[in-house]
Amino acid sequence: MAEKVGVSPIIPRTVGTQKHRANYIANDGDCCTYYRVSIFYPYLDDLLSSFNERFNSNSSLISSLSCLLPSKVKKNTFDDLQMALEFYKDDLQIDSYSSTLKGEFELWQMKWETETVIPTNSLIDSDTLLNCPVDIFPNVYTILKIFTILPVTTASVERSFSTLKRIKTYLRNSTSENKLNGLALLNVHRDIDIDIESLIDVSANRKKRRLNFKL
Q1: How many CB atoms lie within 10 A of CB 183?
Q2: Using CA atoms, how far apart are residues 36 and 193, in angstroms rounded to an integer?
Q3: Where is the HAT C-terminal dimerisation domain (predicted)?
């Protein structure tokens, strides 16, 4: 990065007492060692901790979902998939122990036993879904689709703040809290149909209003 911006990396000045950062010791003043110890190792440690915190509680479920991956399906059995089937049984609308679902799994295994080219990646990609006809493997397709769209993290809070930025501008700075909450909910839940005529009637029948509605 220093070469790209045309600067020479240097080690920050070391003093006896630091208030805002720690004094990292680098042998012979080596910049690479200093930035490796001060930036790279802490970042890597924080990244691994975040992964462990995020996935440890759901590792068994993710492992069960991965049983349908083309690179792993031949090594697993239908029983290995039971945890994922129980968790997502409402999406499948079928008994997780039914013979139909087991037949789909066995047919899915046979499909990849005869394939000459099998994806070796540990994550699902679009090619796997394209090779899973929904008419033949409806439940397998649903599980693979769920595995594809599983979020690594949630962005609900970020979406709320983005919505708030669009609604509460400097021209609407005096908007009351109730009205602001209502506008935010309308913006987030756009899929809900609203009867405009009923809203006009509610506003027109209010006693306290600045302007009279001429209906």
Answers
A1: 17
A2: 55
A3: 135-191
